[in-house]
Amino acid sequence: MLRFLSRRVLIALPTIVLISIFVFALQKLLPGDPLLVMAGEERDPAVLEALREKYRLNDPIPVQYFAWIGNALQGDLGVSLRTGQPVTELMAEKLPVTIQLAVMSMIFALVIGIPAGILSAYKKGTVTDYVANVIALSGLSIPNFWLGIMLILLVSVKWQLLPASGYVPLSEDFWQSIRTMLMPSFVLGTALAATLMRHTRSSMLGVLSADYVRTARAKGLSERVVVLKHGLRNALTPIVTLTALLFGELVAGAVLTEQIFTIPGFGKLVVDAVFNRDYAVVQGIVLVTAVGFIFMNLVADALYFVLNPRLREQ
Amino acid sequence: MTYIKTAMVTALMGATALTAAAPAFAKDLRIALQSDADVLDPDQSRTFVGRIVYASLCDKLVDITPDLEIIPQLATGWETSEDGTEITMTLREGVVFHDGTPFNAEAVAANIERSQTLDESRRKSELSSITGTEVTGEYEIKLMLAGPDATLMAQLADRAGMMVSPTAAAAAGADFGLNPVCSGPFSFTERVAQDKIVLTKFDDYWNADAINFDSVTFLPIPDTTVRLANLQSGDIDMLERLAATDLAQAEADENIVVDRAVSLGYQGITFNINNGERGDNPWGNDKRLRQALSYAIDREALNQVVFEGAFAAGNQPFPSTSPWYNASLPVEGQDIEKAKALLAEAGFPDGIDLEVQVPNSTVPLAVMQVVQAMAGQAGINISLTSKEFATLLSDQSAGDYQASQIGWSGRIDPDGNNHQFATTDGGINDSKYSNPKMDELLNAARVGSTTEERKALYDEAIAIMLEDLNRLFLYHVTWIWAYNDSIKGFTPYPDGMIRLEGVTWEE
Fold first, then answer.
1. Shortest CB distance from B390 goes to which of A32, A54, A167?
2. What's the longest Cα–Cα distance across chain A?
3. Do residue B195 and residue A167 have CB atoms under 8 angstroms apart?
4. In a shared domain, residues B112 and B14
5. B503 falls in which pLDDT band (50, 70, 90)?
6. What value of ipTM does the predicted structure carry?
7. Is the CB of A275 less than 8 angstroms away from the CB of B390?
8. Are A235 and A68 within 8 A, CB to CB?
9. Is there a contact between B404 and B396 (Cβ–Cβ < 8 Å)?
């Protein structure tokens, strides 16, 4: 297993280097001058030129890249052109927020998606199956921004149950923090739950018709043990891969959700940074997100060994 | 020319003493902003919302009234020498910065020097007429000017006149914005980018009795529907820039008060007259075409359709509510016949195409679609190229456009809405428009000594602007604030700022 994992880590390294080059180059291809955007209504050519020098925007692009990656390797991702804050500090502020959103959304997704998938596979062709499918399809097809705004209008404005938007750190007020994150993570979670439910269902359907399940039933095992132990455990491997991949989707979904609920996380940071051509911030976030995504997939790979004893012997 | 307004200060203090007697609750005021502020250093910052934060954080040498008159804030009086090259200011005594540094003439001198010399300073051009300062007393300072500058006091009523603690500024340098130290009614406590900016009441504020909130929190909430939802659910107490389309919903809510003020700026269409190769086209070469488009537009209808009548139709660089508006040239209705006649005269009796670039957000697109429909009636076939704002700005600056839908947030002094756009060497003259008469008028208005003299010059300049139309004006934004009805004593200002002096919270 160690050999397998270390090989995966080695493959991950060039991927990260490629991503960093890609992001850097793509950004420079974007039309629009960051300093002109920054300048807004005050465009003093002399000041703009001084700032271009300061942020090395006049250097050739490869030179800019090596300067950036050199600093990045030492943990310095530069400063935001817009607010002057160090990028690492900005991300340290935002990372816990997005992690909290991701984890809570994933909990919603797993708690709704997997049981619904099992249930609809087990009760295939019944009303339960159809209802679960309709709900899952709605979850997939209702746009996040619509669901988000409807929830705000209903739950916050009309019933006044939860805060409409914003964010409170966990360390400041645990319950208030959970309360502010409930609606956004629900919105984000339901979309993922739908995907999870559909995959769990098809994976379970395959497993439930397998010979060993019939054998288990023939042995007289209870339905619970047959479905959850023999069935689910075997059906889970593809679901684990999917869950890891869904974390990527989660980050993408967070971009929209964070906008609607005004959550100061990664998604909001990156959108604002792209529009302001705040290069250092975009690069920093993409790099860190890519590393995070690769890490999640490594975790998924490691989980196979836990779930599937056959792999351990290889 | 003397502007000492001690009487006014006394009146102001009296008024604040009265409001202080009203029941004041210890409360954190939560204000939603349309976007996040940029760096919180008055010398470096650029955003409109940043200025809203400064209104609570940083006092200025002078302030304005809702009618745009200059009134004392940290400077209690000022006197301009006969030849207009020296301004002597008397400063308020007993003022301290949030870090305890005393405010005095030395501090003002240090601030002006910082604005003029800091590499990252955006205030250089605003203070370019000041050649030096001389401290003539603990609370008296003399500003030496290169020549008469009628716009200077208005600059000092904005970021260029904001006083930061010289001690903190010297220690932090260009990083001052991470922990700003000023002398306003609230001091900086904390900022989480894109989440909140928290300010706490400054007990040693010179006018502390007029401040009735323990703290104020600014929350950037970009989505206008969500901003209003937060107000309705009680999560925030006040919001700025309510969308005109949400006005009916806000007004129908009995717990919400809506206030408004027509802004100082404008929105319109800027033409490429002579900016690179693309300026050489019929629209850039023949003002009759631009006039034809202007006649084809029904500005009042535009305001009704896109803004439900909440904004102000406009044809000049300032709204009709401004004291600088040229009243002899009011907004005219649509005149399709005249537009067609002008097109024919210019050699396009069968109509002509025009490409307008427009920011890719809802409001500018809606505005231009209405204009497109109106222009179509006269035979002007407008095609819209929607661009993301950064791209639009950079194309406009580089001259890669035919016409561009863009606006200006507006300045207190009329010079700010005109000089840099309409003079030959103007810094933001993206049209590369040049008319010697216009240069002469706008340069003269800059140094004019009396308001009457300046008004006459602007009246003449505006008549030429409406003839040449390098900028075609369409409408003026109305700032709309919505707030909880427990907030009393809020005054709307045309600069869109939120001034909390005298504002109270009464359940």
1. A32
2. 85
3. yes
4. yes
5. very high
6. 0.79
7. yes
8. no
9. yes
